[in-house]
Amino acid sequence: MLLMLVSLLCCVPAATACLQCDRKIKLLIEDLTMSARSIKQQIEMKPYRDHIFEAFKESSRQRKGVIDATTLYRARTEYQNELNRYLNTEHTEQIGSARIETIRMLEMGRRILEKHLDIFIRDGLCPNKCGLLKRRVMDCSSCRYKIYICPSPSGQQDCGELPVQAEEGGQAVLHCFHPWHRLLLGAPEYHYSWARGVPGTEKLNESDFKALVVTDDSSVVLNQLHTEEQGTYRCSLQGQDGTVFYRVTFPLAVAALPDRNYKRPVVPPPSLPGGDDYSPSRPTADLLVPVVAMITALSLVASVGLTFVLGMMMSQRRAAGQQRRRTETRTHIVL
Question: What is the pTM of this model?
Answer without folding.
Answer: 0.62
